[in-house]
Amino acid sequence: MSQPLEATGSDKHLLNEPDGFRVWRPGTVDYRDAQAKQADLVDRRFHWTHDLLILLEHPPVITLGRNTDQNNLLWDQETLQAAGIDCVPSHRGGDITLHGPGQLVGYPIVDLNHFRKDLHRYLRLLEEVLIRTLGDFDLAGVSLPGKTGVWIEGRKIASIGIAVRRWISYHGFALNVDNDLSAFKAIIPCGLPDVTMTSISRELGGPVDKDRVAEALISHFSSVMQRPLLGDFDDSATSTQA
User: Fold this and answer.
1) Position 27 in a domain
2) How many domains does one find in the chain?
């Protein structure tokens, strides 16, 4: 458990240990809308006693992290439009990546005061959540020194990129479940020129139940982050009651 911290003023309430986390699964959400919603939820998190895990999918979209090298975008706008792929700047860290149907995207809204304000530790915890989730499907995911994300025998199956405001984290991870991997030809994923992307369905050689993957991930998020699941998130509730 993290050590007590000191604070003054409006941040004092953040130092109370969260009583758990809630889960919100809104389905398929446009990336721009999801990014704007996260900004709102970060503001609301300052009034909550719990963290939040958002699990969703995006329509096909390339996202450009704050450290993106534009040379890692290989297709021009005309080609992207013909393929039905949007291209959006992102608030998260990291380089370029791609989202689309069949990919499980997770956006934890988490108070990092309770993780020693240690971004590297938090990233390793997210990797552990993903590795344990893959283990439920008899897949041996690993993290690699000096790189962020999760690999299976050198093939990348999950990407991670976060943002932080006043020590509240947002953005998060993308786990390839049964998405169209051919779309990654439009980019150099995460700026890694020799990377091969893979998915759970490709590794298993057949279809996979996305809901089962999501439920496994929720369970491991709870155990790794040491937070009990409090139930579903009600977005219609007031900022102090959600």
Assistant:
1) yes
2) 1
In degrees rounded to 5, what are phi and psi of residue 57?
Answer: -125, 160
Domain residues for the domain of 224 are 18-232
What's the CA gap between 66 and 7, in Å, rounded? 29
Residue 95 lies in a domain: yes
Active-site residue, 87 included: no
Q: For residue range 84-137, what is the model confidence (pLDDT) as tens digits?
A: 999 999 999 999 999 999 999 999 999 999 898 999 999 999 999 999 999 999
Q: What gap in Å lies between CA 139 and CA 159, rounded to an integer?
A: 16
pLDDT tens per residue, range 131-141: 999 999 999 99
State how far the Cα of 207 lies from the Cα of 61, in Å rounded to an integer: 23
The residue from 190, 213, 214, 224 that is catalytic is: 190
pTM: 0.91
